[in-house]
Amino acid sequence: MAKLDIISGNNQNTSYKVQQKTTIGRLANNTIAIDDTKSSRQNSLVFIKDGLYYIRDLKSRNGTIVNGEKIENIQQLFAGDRIKVGNTIFIFSEEDDPDVTRDLASVKNELSPSPTKTPKTQESDLQKGIREASSSVKKRTRRRKSQKYTRPSINQKLESMNRTHVIIAIVVIMCVLFVVSRWLTLNFIS
Questions:
Q1: Which domain holds residue 64?
Q2: Partners of 92 in the beta sheet?
Q3: Mean pLDDT of the chain
Q4: How far apart are CA 155 and CA 160, in angstroms?
Q5: For residues 40 and 65, is the Cβ–Cβ distance under 8 A?
Q6: What's the CA gap between 45 and 47, in Å, rounded?
Q7: Burial of 130 by CB count in 10 Å (0-12 exposed, 13-18 middle, 19+ buried)?
Q8: Residues forming beta bridges with residue 90, ordered by sequence position
Q9: Per-residue pLDDT at 144 exceeds 50
Q10: Per the domain annotation, does 118 fall within a domain?
Q11: Could you tell me where the beta strands, DSSP code E, fall in 52-161?
C-alpha cells in the first residue's frame, strides 16, 4: 500500500495511506482534507488502476503539480514523486520501499526547525532537502518506458488534425463539384 507524506504546509509531518480513490482538497469530506487556502475544495484525485498509482487534477484553480510540472491529464505516480496541491507538498511512497522511507525520514530530520535559523534559511533548506531526496529516490526507481504514461506529442495532434481537415476539404470539394455539375446539367443541357 502506498502513502502520501506532507513535508511542507500546514499539516506538515502528517502521513496518509492511499486508498482505491483518494481525494485531496480543502473540504472536510475529502479523503485528505488539508488546511490550505491555495487549494481548491476538491483539488486532486489519486487512484489505483491495475496495481499502479495515478493522479488527476480535478479542474482545480491552481492545478496539481507533480515534480515541478503542472499536470494536464492523468499521470502515473512513482516512489519519490513530489505532489504540490496549493502550498502543501506531499511525497508519494510505497510503504514497503525502505529507501524512500529512509530518505523521507532524513529530509524531515534535516528540515526540523532549529532556533538559530532564520525563516528564510529554513525555506531554502526545505527546498534543498526536497530536491535531494527526490533526486536520490529517482535514481533508484528508474522508470521503465512501458510504465510511463506518455501524452500525444504536438506533432501527432497536428497530423491527426491535418488528416481530418484534408478529409473535410475533400468532402466539401466533392459536394461543390456535384452542385456545379447539377446546375450545369439543368441550365445548359436541357
A1: 2-94
A2: 4
A3: 78
A4: 9
A5: no
A6: 6
A7: middle
A8: 6, 83
A9: no
A10: no
A11: 52-57, 64-66, 69-70, 75-76, 82-85, 88-94
DSSP letter for 59, please.
S
pLDDT at residue number 146: 43
| Torsion, CA 125, CA 63, CA 44, CA 66, rounded to 10 | -50
| Range from 81-85, 125-129, 138-142 carrying the lowest mean pLDDT | 138-142
Residues whose CB is less than 8 angstroms from the CB of residue 114 and which lie 6 or more positions away in sequence, other chains included: none
What does the pLDDT read at residue 99? 52
> Residue 103, SS3?
helix
In a domain, 185, yes or no: no
**Structural domain tally of the chain?**
1
pTM of the model: 0.52
d(CA 41, CA 106) in angstroms, rounded, equals: 32
Q: Classify the C-alpha dihedral 125-36-88-97 as positive or negative.
A: positive
Would residue 175 be called left, alpha or beta, if left means φ above 0 and alpha means ψ between -120 and 50 degrees?
alpha
- Evaluate whether 32 touches 22 at the Cβ level (below 8 Å): yes
Domain harbouring 47, CATH code: 2.60.200.20
Distance separating alpha carbons of residues 156 and 152, to the nearest angstrom: 6
